[in-house]
């Protein structure tokens, strides 16, 4: 008997679920909680669920540039740090939509909130003629938004390596696994529950034992019969244990992996593209650390999607802001400030941005598992691998 729990919105598969805490206030910043228009100006509020680097992107990058081009428009942000109250936010948005009321924000930058709001039917329908900036975004990336989510930046997990000790980096998963065994103590990945880079490594190994259709299914639903086929993958991960940096010891989070690379404790590891590039710019890791993307299968990655509440009082203004974000200027700001992959065709961007992402291939993002599947994967890894 097959046990499945399907989703209405397909792009839920690539959106991570944050910690959910009910009955608690949403943390806020900025000067306005409502989107309003009056006099000669318009005020927009962008709701963010995530870390402060995303808020900094908006507050210090996108918003100042947008307001400079649009005198009289004010854009504020409100943030639920680390998505601690995402569930409450979705409930608030649903209630406002059912009542036909303005929800208090005009644009949503929050994986769980955007995806759950789409499933609840609370977001504005998005088409290419609605948001003109989508014309330069690959069709597959747009399609993953299922007509509600607007892709605006992306990232993926890459294979980083020390060029001082690695002269020929692995190009496929099989080559990587062989390299790990041949070079004990030189590879590390964080436990999947502590960060997505380790989760991507585990997912990729598990996927190598599944068919393409089975992999796709776990991106949109919980299928316990397919998940039972992970056993071979977990056995493979367990067998790699003696070849890890230290047997039975796994770094705690994405950042610790980067620190180990930067200090020379290890020679190779999976890392998030944006964190890698930012760490190299800040000097946390040196220019001797390079990156590549493996194949058969590749590591996972995904776009981040914006949503526009359908009962916002300023949907036209929100669409205009989104079009700016998808413009060459907006995409360049994202690339420079948080090293996010542009979602538009790289040929439309300045040469330095094209060069920055030439080896990363932002158009080929292999999504990770649906959130509930990913959570179960992490639990099973904790039980079966260390």
Quick structural overview:
It contains 15 helices and 10 strands.
Give a written overview of the molecule.
The protein has helices spanning 52-69, 86-99, 111-119, 139-143, 173-182, 196-207, 212-217, 224-227, 231-239, 254-263, 273-282, 315-325, 328-338, 351-356, 371-384; strands at residues 4-6, 36-38, 41-50, 73-81, 107-109, 150-162, 221-223, 268-272, 289-292, 301-307. It is an alpha+beta fold and 386 residues long. The protein folds into two domains: 4-153 and 302-356, D-Maltodextrin-Binding Protein, domain 2, CATH 3.40.190.10; 156-301, D-Maltodextrin-Binding Protein, domain 2, CATH 3.40.190.10. Strands 2, 3, 4, 5, 6, 8, 9 and 10 form an eight-stranded mixed sheet that branches. It has a two-stranded antiparallel sheet with strand order 1-7. Helix 1 (52-69) runs antiparallel to helix 13, helix 2 runs parallel beside helix 3 (111-119) and helix 6 (196-207) crosses helix 9 (231-239). The radius of gyration is 21 Å and the shape is globular.
Q: What would the keywords be for this entry?
A:
386 residues; alpha+beta; D-Maltodextrin-Binding Protein, domain 2; disordered N terminus
Number of strands: 10
- Global shape: globular
CATH class designation of the largest domain: Alpha Beta
> Percent helix among the residues?
25-40%
| Assembly state (oligomeric) | single chain
CATH-level-4 superfamily name of the largest domain: Periplasmic binding protein-like II
Radius of gyration: 21 Å
Biggest sheet: strands, sense, closure?
8 strands, mixed
Order of helices and strands: EEEHEHEHHEHHHEHHHEHEEHHHH
Low-confidence stretches: 1-39
Please give the alpha-carbon distance between the first and last residues.
31 Å
Please name the CATH topology of the largest domain: D-Maltodextrin-Binding Protein, domain 2
Kindly state the mean pLDDT as a whole number?
Answer: 85
Query: How big a fraction of the residues is strand?
Result: 15-25%
In DSSP terms (H or I, runs of 4 or more residues), the helix count works out at 15
Structural domains: how many = 2
> What is the name of the CATH architecture of the largest domain?
3-Layer(aba) Sandwich
């Amino acid at each position: 008997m097959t046990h499945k729990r399907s989703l209405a919105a397909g792009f839920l598969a690539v959106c991570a679920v944050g910690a959910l805490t009910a009955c608690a206030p949403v943390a806020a910043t900025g000067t306005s909680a409502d989107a309003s228009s009056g006099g000669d100006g318009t005020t927009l509020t962008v709701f963010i669920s995530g870390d402060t680097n995303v808020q900094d992107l908006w507050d210090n990058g996108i918003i100042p540039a947008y307001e400079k081009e649009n005198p009289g428009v004010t854009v504020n942000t409100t943030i639920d740090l680390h998505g601690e109250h995402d569930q409450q936010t979705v409930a608030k948005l649903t209630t406002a939509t059912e009542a036909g009321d303005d929800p208090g924000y005009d644009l949503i930058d929050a994986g769980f909130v955007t995806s759950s709001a789409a499933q609840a039917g609370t977001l504005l329908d998005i088409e290419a003629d609605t948001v003109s900036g989508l014309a330069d975004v690959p069709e597959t990336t747009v399609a993953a938004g299922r007509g509600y989510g607007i892709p605006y930046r992306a990232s993926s997990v890459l294979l980083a390596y020390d060029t001082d000790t690695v002269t020929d980096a692995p190009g496929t998963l099989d080559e990587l696994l062989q390299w790990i065994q041949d070079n004990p103590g030189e590879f590390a990945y964080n436990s999947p529950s502590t960060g997505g880079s380790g989760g991507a490594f585990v997912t990729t190994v598990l996927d190598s034992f599944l068919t393409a259709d089975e992999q796709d299914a776990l991106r949109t639903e919980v299928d316990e019969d397919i998940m039972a086929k992970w056993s071979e993958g977990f056995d493979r991960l367990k067998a790699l244990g003696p070849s890890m940096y230290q047997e039975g010891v796994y770094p705690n989070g994405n950042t610790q992996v980067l620190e180990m690379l930067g200090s020379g404790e290890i020679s190779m590891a999976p890392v998030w593209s944006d964190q890698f590039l930012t760490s190299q710019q800040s000097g946390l890791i040196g220019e001797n650390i390079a990156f590549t993307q493996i194949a058969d299968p590749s590591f996972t990655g995904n776009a981040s999607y914006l949503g526009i509440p359908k009962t916002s009082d300023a949907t036209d203004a929100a669409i205009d802001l989104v079009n700016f974000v998808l413009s060459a200027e907006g995409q360049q700001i994202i690339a420079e400030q948080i090293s996010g992959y542009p979602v538009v065709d790289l040929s439309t961007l300045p040469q330095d941005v094209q060069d920055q992402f030439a080896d990363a291939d932002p158009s080929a993002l292999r999504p990770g598992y649906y959130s509930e599947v990913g959570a179960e994967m992490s639990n099973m890894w904790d039980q079966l691998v260390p």
